[in-house]
Design brief:
Belongs to the inositol 1,4,5-trisphosphate 5-phosphatase type I family. This protein has eight helices and 18 strands. By secondary structure, it is of the alpha+beta class. The chain has one domain: Deoxyribonuclease I, Chain A (4-Layer Sandwich), CATH 3.60.10. The longest helix is centred in the middle third of the chain and has 17 residues. The two termini are 22 Å apart.
Length: 385
């Protein structure tokens, strides 16, 4: 979501979600937001035990970059304590405030008061005790096979002029197996994500604090309805099931054309989704696939999303020479989203001006940005002073 900020038109706000923190300096310099929020997931990367020590250097370099030199206030929250399995989420929330933005405050969840934001602060230890945020890891029984992983949310609350709103960084559960995702519609993974998202919504709208408009953006891991999509994609194909030896468990599914020498069109394994023609995910930005994107439907009264007009944000190739290609590991999907409460939409948007003031898109369309690629960007329509 985006727009060119101008004082007479209102403050510019840039919201970015990036799995593992892709570089975004060009985006900052081109949009020049007054308030920049960057939500990262998987801080430290997949091999976080070996890589977490490098996060501090990355943050220092980011804060000293030319792109952020005019942002004289910052709040950086990094969940780095991977030894605390009961609390570790690997979430990183970065907030940068431009020197021209004078009237901004942050909420203290203990004192239940707002405080003026001064200077730059980086917090990476015992986030649970920080009164400037609320952090939670999902209950253990939410996790598939009750196995701990880095999933949860971090909430901060801000007052910008006359607006008060929450920003929530979120990371939901992924599809561990393409074969399991194929078994039912909706999949067991989709059901678990629905439960976890409901948990977050209930927490941020309960009676402990005043209810305010909220934005939730991060890696929702939303996937297409695998069973329905594959049945449509391979409607004229025949399916071959390959099982393992003694256990007789399904090892792979092979879909072949009925004619044309029985050409393989799709091979599905636990971590393989090899479809013969990736163009289907890019043509018209993949919008023909949106009918199978259903995970937000149960929350239609609580969450709103702007129209999607960009290709699936995951799983892009991590090969630096193939920035536009998808990996053959998962079915491409819009995992990375920005969602908002109805009150947030009413606060920031006038329907007649929405198309002119807002861009909802990804960045780095032609370059390697890691396996996730999206940036929501936003400019409110209301004048502030």
């Amino acid at each position: 979501m985006a727009g060119k900020p101008a004082a007479a038109q209102g403050y510019g706000i840039l919201l970015v979600t990036a799995n593992v923190g892709s570089l975004f300096e060009d985006t900052v310099q081109s949009h020049k937001p007054h308030f920049l929020a960057l939500h990262c997931q998987e801080v430290g990367g997949k091999n976080y035990e070996a890589s977490m020590s490098h996060v501090g250097s990355f943050v220092k370099e980011l804060l000293s970059s030319d792109a952020l030199k005019e942002y004289n206030r910052a709040r950086v929250y990094l969940d780095e304590d991977y030894k605390s399995k009961e609390q570790f989420t690997a979430l990183g929330s970065f907030y940068f405030i431009h020197e021209t933005l004078k009237n901004i405050q942050q909420f203290d969840f203990n004192a239940k008061t707002f405080e003026k934001v001064v200077g730059r602060e980086t917090c990476s230890e015992t986030l649970e005790s920080r009164s400037s945020l609320e952090k939670a890891k999902f209950p253990k029984d939410y996790y598939p096979q009750c196995k701990w992983s880095r999933k949860g949310f971090i909430r901060t609350r801000w007052a910008l002029a006359d607006w008060t709103f929450d920003l929530v960084n979120i990371h939901l559960f992924h599809d561990a197996s393409n074969l399991v995702a194929w078994e039912n519609s909706p999949s067991v993974y989709s059901t678990t994500r629905q439960k976890a998202l409901g948990f977050v919504l209930d927490r941020i709208t309960d009676q402990r604090y005043e209810k305010v408009p909220y934005f939730i953006f991060g890696d929702f891991n939303f996937r297409l309805d695998s069973k329905q999509f594959i049945e449509s994609l391979c409607s004229t194909a025949t399916m071959q099931t390959v099982t393992t030896g003694k256990t007789n468990e399904v090892d792979k599914l092979i879909f072949r054309e009925s004619d044309n020498d029985k050409k393989v069109v799709l091979q599905l394994e636990k971590k393989l989704f090899n479809y013969v023609n990736q163009d289907v995910f890019r043509e018209n930005n993949g919008t023909s696939l949106l009918e199978f994107d259903k995970e937000l439907a149960p929350f239609k009264d609580r969450l709103i999303e702007l129209e999607i007009s960009f290709p699936p944000s995951y799983p892009y190739s991590e090969d630096s020479t193939q920035g536009k290609e998808y990996m053959n590991t998962r079915c491409p999907a819009w995992c990375d989203r920005i969602l908002m409460s109805p009150s947030a939409r009413d606060l920031f948007f006038k329907p007649e001006n929405e198309e002119k003031t807002v861009t909802y898109d990804n960045i780095g369309a032609n370059v390697c940005m890691g396996d996730h690629k999206v940036t929501p960007r936003l400019r409110p329509h209301t004048h502030c002073s």
